[in-house]
Structures are given as C-alpha cells and as structure tokens.
Amino acid sequence: MSRLALVNIAVLGLLIGGALVAHLTGHAFLVTLATKAAIFALAGVGLNFALGYGGLVSFGHAAFFGIGGYVTGILASHAMSGTPLTTLPYTMNGTNEMLAIWPMVLLVSGLAALAIGALSLRTSGVYFIMVTLAFAQMIYWFAIGWPAYGGEDGLSFYVRNTFPGVPTMRPLNYFLICTALLLLALGFTAVVMRARFGLALQAARRNTQRTVAVGIRPFGIRLTAFVISAMITGLAGSLYADLNRFVSPAMLNWHMSGEIMVFIILGGVGRLMGPVAGAVVFVTMEHLLGGITEYWQVLLGLVLLAIVLWAPGGIVGMLSGRGRDNAH
Amino acid sequence: MRTDPILEIRGLRKSFGALIATDDVSLTLMPGEIHALIGPNGAGKSTLIKQIVGELSADGGEVRFEGQRIDSLDAAARARLGLARSFQVSSVIPDFTVLQNVCLAVQGGSGRSYGFLRPVLSDPALTEPARFHIQQAGLDGREDFAAAALSHGERRKLEVAMALALRPRAFLLDEPMAGMGTEGAGQLVALLSDLRSEAPILLVEHDMDAVFRLADRISVLVYGRIIATGTVDEIRGNPEVRRSYLGEEA
Amino acid sequence: MLIFEQLLNGLQYGMTLFLMAAGLTLVFGVMGLINLAHGSLYMIGAFACAVVAAATGSFWLGVAASLAAAAAAGALMELLVIRRLYRRDHLDQVLATFALILIFSEGTRWLFGSFPLYLTLPPSLSGTVTLPGGLVYPVFRFAVIVLGLAIAGGLFWLMRGTRLGIRIRAGEADREMIGALGVDISKLYTVVFALGAALAGLAGALVGAVQSVQVGMGEPVLILAFVVVVIGGIGSIGGALVSAILVGMTDSLGKALLPGMLAQVMPQAAANTLGASLASMSVYILMAVVLVWRPTGLFGARA
After folding, report:
1. Which domain covers residue B145, as residue numbers?
2. Which domain holds residue A37?
C-alpha cells in the first residue's frame, strides 16, 4: 500500500475514530465538533472538485454553502409554521425531512452555479477569482436585505430535520449521517476523476490549448464541474444549517469562501483527502487555540502563510512525501 | 488525374493593427501529399496555422476542409472533423501518462467526454485505439511513463500519437523538427514520411534538409504573402525565393 | 436638486473607491499579483489617522500619518511576504494574502479592541459649501472629490510623464526587458506596492473621518474595489477611474432612488429594506453586464 493511501486512511480514521472515542467516553461536545469537521470537509470536497482538479479558483463558494443552508432553513421553518412557501403556480409546502430537503438543496445550488458559472467562466485567471467573489457578495447582500427570512439576524428553526429511522438529535447519529455523505462525495470524486469527464477536466487545467486541439471544449466541461462542485458544497451548507438549526448571512460571507479554500490548502490542493485533512486540522486548531486566546486567527494566519510559502503540498503532501500536483 | 483538395484556403487575411500578418494567402493540401510551408521568422507561418485550426479568427477569406467551409467552427469542432495539429513547443499534459494523453485524444475525437463512471483506463474503446497509436508512433513500452519524464524526441512522438488518435483527415505540424538532434531528426523524418499514408500533411518547418526530403510541394511565405508554390526543384530554382529566403540561408 | 446631490455623493464615493482600486490595479498590472490584504492597508491608514489625530489634535497630521503608516506597512508586507508570491499562481496569492488579513485584523483587534474609534474633522472641513446653482454641500465630501480628481491627475502624470511611470509601464509590458535595461526590478516593485498602499491608507483615513474606524472596515471596500478593477480592466488606471465613478454612482443613485421606486408597488417599510439590498446588488449586476459584454473589462487588454 502506498504512503499516500496510508495517509488517506489515517485521515479518515482520525475523524471517524475520534468521534467514536468521544462518544464512548461521553464527550458529546467533541462529537459535535467532529460533525462540524466532517461538514467543512464536505464543503471542501465540493470546492476541490472545481479548484483542485479543474483549476477553477472560485472565491465564491460561500454562496453555495449559504444557499444550501437557506434552502434548508426556509423549508424547515415553513414546515414548522405550517405555511406554504408559495401558492403559485401551485401550493408548495415546507418539509422537515432531510431526504426531501437534500434534492431541493442540490437543485437550487446547482441552478445558482449554472448561472454564476456561465457568466464567470467567460473570464479566467484573476478575473475569475474576483468575479466569483463578487457574485457571492451579491447573494450575501440579498440575504441581508431580504426581510422575509430574518435578514441580517438569520433564521432559526429549533428542531433538527428528520431522517427515516434515525433520531437525528443524537450527536453520534448526526455525525454518522454527515460522514456517510462525506464518504459518498469522496467516492464520487474519486470515480469521476478516473473517468472520461475527470480526464478532460484535469487536462483542461494543465493545458487548455492542447485539450482544445484534441477536440474537447473546456467551457462545458468546466461549467459542469463548477455545478457539481457547487452542489456538493450546497449539501454541506444544508448539513451545517441542520447542525446549528440556524442559518444566517454569515454562511454567505466571503470569509466563509476563504475558509473553504483554507481547508483545501491546509490539506493539499487537488488531493482527494486534502479537504478532509484540512477541515480536521482547522476545526481542531479553532478549538484548541480558541481556548487559549480569542485572537487565535492570528495563529491560523501564520500557519496558513507558512504552508503557502513553504509547504505548497499541504498536510497530505507533507505526510505522503510528495509536492503539489495530482496523484491519481 | 484531378482530385479535390482536403484543405483549401482562399484569400485569407489577418492584420494586427498596422501589421499585416496574413496577406491574401491561398493554398491547397491535396490527398496523400506533404506540403511544406517555409519562410523566414516572422513571416506569419504560425499566425496562418492558428487561423486554419481556429485559434485565431481571420479578417477575411475562407478555409474549406473536405469541401466544407469551416470558418465559423471553433477549434475543438475543427479538431473533431479530423484536423490534427502539433505545436511548435511540445504540448502534452505533463502529469498524465503517455497512455492517458493518447486516451484523452481518442476521447476528444470521439466527442464523448461526459462519462462520469467508467474508468478511462479500463475502457477498451479508449485504451485499444490509444495503444495502437502509441505503437504506430514508436512509443511502445512507454505507456505508463509520465509525459513529463519523456525525452524531447519521445514527446514529439507522443504528439504524433495524439494526432493519430484523432483519426485525422489532415495533419498540421508546426515545426516538428525543432530542437531535435541529428539521430532523432532522422527517426522523425521517417515517422512523418509514414504519416503521409494516414493523411496529408501541411508541414511548417525550418529544417530545410527535412523539407527537401519530405515535401511534395513547397510554399514560401514572406511578410504574410505566398511568393511561390511549387515542387522541390521548382522552389530550389526560383530566383525570387533564392533572393528573399534561401539566399540568406546559404 | 436631490438628484444632483446624489450624483455628487456618487462621485465622492467613487473617488474613495478609486483610491483603493488604483493601488490594486497597479499591483495586478505590474506584478500580476492579487492582493486581498489591500483592505488591511486601508484599515491601517484609518487607525493611524485616528490615533495620531487623537494624540496631536491635528486631523492633518493624522492624514499624513495614514499615508506614512500604510506606505510603511505596504513596503514591509512586500519585502517580507509579497515578493515571494510573484512567481506563484493566483491561488497561492489569494491564500497568503487572506492569511495576512487574518493576521492584520486580529492583530489590530488585539491592539485596539473591537470598539470603533471616531475622528473629528477640523472646522475648515466640517462646514458646508454653496456650489454654483445654489446646492449646499458638505465641505469635506467636496474636498474628497477634489482630492480624488487631483490624485487621479497626479497618477496619470506619474505614469505618462516620469521615469518611474515609464519603468512601471515597461514592467507591465515585459518583465524581462526592464530587468535587461538595468532597472532594479525588486526595488521598483516595492515602490509601486508602497505607493498603492499609501493611497489605500489615505482612503481609509478619509472614510474613517465620516464613518468610524474599526477592525474589518476594509473588507466591504476591498470587494467593491475588486469590482471596480474588474469593470475597469486590470492594470488600467484610467479604467479604474471611470469604473470607480460608475460604481459609486450606481450605488448612490440605487440607494437613493430604488426604495422610492419600489414604494410605488409595495409597502414603504418593505420597499426600504428591499431597495437597500437591491442597491447593494446593483453594483454586482453592473459588473455582470459589463463582463458579458467585455470579459476583460472596459479598458482591459483583449485576452
């Protein structure tokens, strides 16, 4: 077994094993912390799909994280109050079932990504970074100014949504739901990146001109990757909303976009397990350093700076003894 | 015997501001031939290639491929019609293996890149033609090497394999001999000569030795204009060509 | 008359954005670097102004301090971190400068706390001025417009008419060439970076004087400055000026007019909130429209 595979297994083992140990020793809070790490990892897996494999440096993925959260919050709050979302053209009611909410989340974040991606992908390089940032900011301001769902104060829905046969309020149960989705997303990414689509996406990142010269149009490939990436991150947003039973414009803020990127960089760009390692380290740092000083983000900044300047392969890169670039 | 040209360019024009890069250029590529395009640096050869493959849009004139106008098609669509090109500086996907690079080309030519589940390397529809073309280009045994680890000459062969994978109706080769040592150059000339049986070649080249050995016809491009087209002997004997191009080389 | 006043407000806002965007677009154009920490330099300028003005009682010394502190912080940032990033890809630049934001913001919070500081304008700037046509307008806002235009003029002169400008433009065109010409490129980069930083610091001081000085104040402005740079075209000072004014106008007129227009079709309270958020969105809609039309901005080089 390669060193990279060992590192990958160790990362997942740390997350899942850590949560199980915390549960068995009665540290429910730590289980919730692991759940947060799993959700952030899922958001990172989503962004990594476009950024790591496709080279699309989206600085606006908070938009999809937030959209996932708001779709969840809105559906749940309507289910709670018993009022329909809309009566035109036909009556549409809220729901508090995760299995009904998730498809809706995937649909809405996918559609938003289709629109944002179609416009942003007309540009490249620095323009793409700034344009995706700006579109996310646009949605952020819209959420703040839209009074129906809490505006600046956000929207609470008190009870976690339900999953058939599983009491979701128990921390370990919810952790397992989130981790199952994370594993699904990881598996999906691994499969897609070995298939035709993944080959074309990675080729377009490394050498666009060559990719065109063999008859592949990068635009459609990239747009598809952007949409899939947004759907995964949107799903993470939905889980995050359910974790806190609360959504607010902070989920849409550009700091969130930056943090999702940070998960990837801490872990290692374009590596399957990069976002998982990054999210685990991020949440751990937040918890440990945050306990020491409220200014822990200074330390986060220094660590991040050090990794960008001296260890561009991230944690997975360091541990597996390889620099940046994809290991298939 | 009269045959229709595979590739026909009529009155192609392109200027960048005051600089006229392509000035009313017409040329044809006939089935089975190697047509060399020569000219001094800055004559507009690369600009012409870019217009033919669709990376640059022409200001005027037309490009016909197998009788059909392709001016409005983008570069990817032209590649799928079978217009295969190589680049002045070797252009492959460096961190893909040789096999992955050629599979990419097979996949591109097939027009089906939206497969999400089946692994490329266990899809015989991709790997079988890819292995065949790798062998054709003389790279067998190198399938699992990363393209970045290949020698310069091997990378040239990989580009040829990728071009072959497009099931080309015409090759556009932009200075394939550039940077090749003597021995490598000999091998490559032999490979290009074999390629002719697959499809005709429009060959942009500075290596006059290779051009004179390979070409059936030669066109000379100077300051964006074609000043002469003819057989090797005709071009060698053309006083204007000698003065404006070959004379300088001698 | 209300419209005219709003146009002036838009122009004034545009000028502040221009001061921010000028540095960003120069650094993009010359060094090919995306610098998120530009907003931190804005914040540093504002804090320097507030602290020095409070200590000395002179707003003018505060403004001078904002220029000096931001330029110094900029030069230091360039020497320690930024110059390691020129050859990196944009992703590394985004992350490293994002890290700088975390360090600067939390560091400032540690030094000054989370409570906002306030600046008092000197009497000479706190009155109103009567403009031709009878419009009464705050002196300070008017001064910002004049100052912004003067700085824009100065930058044009710098770029077109001085040796430094010629070197900067040569560096934009061809990095290796100016190295070959014997220009010390790393010194040039430090100077350009510090110049952009000083302008951002000045913008921070000017905005801090009418709003408040607090941690995180640079972030909304930074993102709008990005929008300005994208609309104007990366590397173009002229483009930044035109698009800063366009963005400033769109924002001000949107905020002033949209609530009233929406109130025709919905209750006033709802119209106010929706109008305000639509006005904030209008700038981004403007950007989307420009990009559909010209993907490299109004004055950007064609890709």
Report:
1. 91-166
2. 10-251
**Average of pLDDT values for C231-259?**
89
From chain A, the residues in CB contact with C219 under 8 A are 254
C6/C15 Cα distance (integer angstroms): 14
Looking at the domain assignment, is residue C27 inside a domain? yes
Q: B201: domain CATH number?
A: 3.40.50.300
Q: Are residues B69 and B136 in the same domain?
A: no
Determine whether the interchain pair B105/A221 forms a contact, defined as Cβ–Cβ distance below 8 Å. Answer: no
- How far is A52 from chain B, CA to nearest CA, in Å? 14
Global pTM reads 0.91
Can you give the pLDDT at residue A327?
Answer: 36
Which residue among B55, B76, B116 places its CB closest to the CB of A216? B76
Q: What is the pLDDT of residues C91-146, one digit of tens each?
A: 889 999 999 999 999 999 999 888 888 888 888 888 888 888 778 888 888 899 99
Residue where one domain finishes, among candidates B166, B187, B211: B166
Write down the pLDDT at residue C181: 62
Q: Do B and A count as touching (3 or more CB pairs closer than 8 A)?
A: yes
Q: Which residues of A touch B126 (CB under 8 A)?
A: 196
Taking 50 as the threshold, does the pLDDT of residue B250 lie above it? no
Q: State yes or no: pLDDT of B212 exceeds 80.
A: yes
Instruction: For residue C92, give the nearest of A133, A301, A312 by CB distance.
Output: A312
Interface contact flag, B76 A212, Cβ < 8 Å: yes
Does residue B244 have a pLDDT over 80? no
Q: Are residues B1 and B113 part of one domain? A: no
Residue A181 and residue A187: Cα distance in Å, rounded? 10
User: What's the complex ipTM?
Assistant: 0.89
**Total of domains in chain C:** 1
